[in-house]
Automatic annotation (TrEMBL):
It is found in: Vacuole membrane. Keywords: Calcium, Ion channel, Ion transport, Membrane, Metal-binding, Potassium, Potassium channel, Potassium transport, Repeat, Transmembrane, Transmembrane helix, Transport, Vacuole. This is Potassium channel domain-containing protein. The keyword Coiled coil does not apply. It comes from the Eukaryota. It is a multi-pass membrane protein. It comes from Solanum verrucosum. Coiled coil: none annotated.
Length: 349
């Protein structure tokens, strides 16, 4: 207590400017992110909070909205496609096993652009239908099914992190922090493991059911998931085509997501390297001049943060200009600060 009483006069003798600077630093460090808006677009569904963990756990009871959309669009596409190809099945040549099954199988092979050639449209009507469904199928895979696959991968990612921390007995906040920190890395791990499983399952199935050699089975799997589809090896039995309907769609989509996550991981790695370089680089007088937004020959904390974010590529000059324009519109009295009076006047006008 005596020590604090002795130091208090020394603190009172500090220049008021230093005290103001210290208070500003505390305010900046205490600054929290803005609250989320009431309306959140569908693309923002990947933002996680504590409720998202319970949502992942109840997937069997209540499907995620984006996943329900995937199922709906896929069912509509397959129903319309199967119906159309069923009515023109006599105009499709090749090895057939069942009318409805062949129609669904041909629809999936067309949508995923595998195109074995074991079933081929042989009339103008069938060719026009195939042309329409290949474009609409590619759009469906690119815009809708990939989002559903991304959601499933994130669910598996969460389960993986929970399993890794099972013995640590950590809370949901730690799990969420781990997800956000190594999100892309865990995605790559999960999708790679899933892809390996699909390749093994496809190879074993072709070898056991379609009676192909191990080399031919693996060759058929590779030509299928890469949508190369030479056509010399394919699913020709009834059981094989039932399996192919689900396996082809899953494996081709999984490979596409794998390349997407690898590219995302590479981009994130380069971004982290840039951030590390920016943080380790020494500031120069030229940097101070560039960072001085208001040209008062001193750089405040806010100006320093903005400059560093621009260096890291987090924001651009256009972003800063847009925000400054909005600030000037809200600053009705042109005082350089925002108050409740400014907001009231700006909203009333």
């Amino acid at each position: 207590m005596e020590g604090s009483n002795i130091n208090q006069p020394l603190l009172d003798q500090l220049p008021k400017t230093l005290q103001n600077v210290d208070s500003r630093r505390r305010r900046l460090r205490r600054l929290k992110s803005a609250p989320m808006p009431e309306f959140v677009p569908g693309e923002m569904n990947d933002i996680k909070d504590d409720q998202s963990l319970s949502r992942y756990e109840s997937i069997l009871d209540k499907l995620h909205p984006s996943f329900r959309k995937v199922i709906l669009y896929l069912v509509i596409y397959l129903t319309i496609g199967t119906t159309c190809f069923y009515f023109v099945q006599n105009q499709i040549h090749g090895k057939k096993v069942n009318g409805v099954l062949d129609s669904v199988y041909f629809c999936v092979v067309t949508m995923t652009t595998v195109g074995y050639g074991d079933l081929v449209p042989n009339s103008a009507t069938a060719k026009l239908l195939a042309s329409f469904f290949v474009f609409s199928g590619m759009a469906l895979v690119g815009m809708v099914l990939s989002k559903g696959a991304d959601y499933l991968v994130e669910k598996q990612e969460t389960l993986l992190i929970k399993a890794l921390h099972m013995r640590d007995k950590v809370g949901p906040s730690v799990i969420l922090e781990e997800i956000e920190t190594n999100k892309v890395r865990y995605k790559c791990f999960v999708i790679t493991a899933t892809l390996v499983v699909l390749i093994v399952v496809g190879t074993v199935f072709l070898a056991e059911v379609e009676k192909l050699s191990t080399i031919d089975a693996f060759y058929c799997v590779c030509s299928t998931i890469t949508t190369l589809g030479y056509g010399d090896k394919s699913f020709s039995t009834k059981a094989g085509r039932i399996f192919a309907i689900f396996w082809i769609l899953t494996s081709t989509l999984c490979l596409a997501q794998f390349f997407l996550y690898v590219a995302e991981f590479n981009t994130e790695r380069k971004q982290k390297e840039l951030v590390q370089w920016v943080l380790s680089r020494k500031m120069t007088n030229v940097d101070l001049e560039v960072a001085d937004l208001d040209n008062d020959r001193v750089v405040g904390a806010a100006e320093f943060v903005v400059y560093k974010l621009k260096e890291m590529g987090k924001i651009s000059q256009d972003d800063v200009s847009l925000l400054l324009d909005e600030f000037e519109c809200l600053d009705v009295d042109q005082s350089g600060t925002l108050s409740t009076t400014d907001l009231s006047l700006a909203q009333s006008s």
